[in-house]
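Reviewer 2 asked us to include a model.

Predict the structure of this chain.
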Amino acid sequence: MKHTFELNAVWNGGRNSEGTIEAGKLKTQISIPTEMGGPGVGTNPDEMLLGAAATCYLISLAAMLERAGIETVSLTQQSEGIVDVTNNIFTYERIIHRPHIVLKAGSGEREVERARLLAGKAEGSCMISRAINGNVGLSTEPIIRIAEAEKK
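Predicted model (C-alpha cells):
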C-alpha cells in the first residue's frame, strides 16, 4: 500500500519575498527566517523539518509506549534543530529530541528503563527520521519520571 501526500505552494517574488503552502490541514505563510536574512513571515523550511521530525518521533514514541503497556500521565517534548552556516552555506546538522515522559504513579524501575529504551528506539521507527538519517544527525535525551501518588 502507498500513501501520497500533496502540497501546493505559491511564491510571490524573489528570495526575500513570501508565499503560502497548503497540504491537507496545513495552511500557512512561508518565508526565509530573519536569522537567515529573510523577512521572517510565517514559518520556514527549517522549522517545518524540525516540526516534521519532532511530531513523527513523538507519535512513534507514544505508540511504542502504548503497545508496550507502559502507562503515561503525560508525554511532552522539546526538540532542537542545529543549523551550521559556513561560507554562507546553510547545513542542517542535527536534531535533538528531549521527550519528557511521566509514568503513572506506582510504576517501577523496570517501566522507567523500558520507557528509556523505547525513547531511543522510537527514532528508528519514525518515517521522517528514516528519510533524513545519514544527512542529519539524530539523537534523543529523554527525561523520565514517575508521577507522585495522590495523597488522600
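The first strand starts at residue 8 and ends at 11. The chain has a mean pLDDT of 94. We have added this to the supplementary material.
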